[in-house]
Prior knowledge:
The protein is built from 9 helices and 6 strands; from the N terminus they run ααααααββββααββα. The chain is mainly alpha-helical.
Amino acid sequence: xxxxDSLVNVIPVLKYLPPWFPGAQWKRDALEWRSxxxxxxxxxxxxxIVQTLLEDIPESGMSTEDAEDHIxxxxxxxxxxxxxxxxxxxxxxxxxxxxxxxxQRKGQEEIDRVVGTDRLPTMKDQDSxxxxxxIIQEIVRWQPVTPLGMPHRVIQDDVYKGYLIPMGATILGNxxxxxxxxxxxxxxxxxxxxxxxxxETHPAPGFGWGRRxxxxxxxxxxxxxxxxxxxxxxFNIQKARDExxxxxxxxxxxxxxSLVYHPAPFKYDIKPRSAHHSTLISALxx
Length: 286
């Protein structure tokens, strides 16, 4: 619920209604949020950035109201940004595995060789799985989730190919164009993790650059590693088939016009690699 969703923000006197009153769901939600906030401030909640920021309010020198307002904006920016781009990256991975089964096979062979088949990969295995890391780098390059990057402000006048870019202007780095440079990434439209595998290929700027580089890059890469490695260890992904048994080949078309790239909905089949892998999956905590 956003701060504009409730009628109480238009008619403030409604704040005096009791929680049980019909239509006062906003007040029941607020009481629950207040209770959770108290738990976090007392240090009894699971560790999180919001909890840490709430605990630091007394030392911040700010009023409680101002500090909480800043915390709301920080949380409201970080959580949606991190979740949306991570989900988009994972679906790009699924799309790539559907279209490029050879990359999937190589990733599975590496996991079977390094990790074995009696457990799923963990973060401790990351440095020992260079091809899985190459798959992740290629996901970031092949279909960057922020194809136009983040806005930057020019700190001094600059000239680019005869064009004056004045100080204070807002510019967008064209990540899509950068990742399509054939001199750096041959056959850029193809998904090819080998371009990063045991090579010094320049990483794609999918997380941005400079002072506005994504602050959650390491978390995103770790989350993507666990997701990619676990899925490849336990599942096979392949093209779906229509009612006549013909393979359905998905496209890389975007879901909609947005600053964040999401693949358009596509059909695919995903199945455990074996009965043994089904047992591994079933043993995971709910």
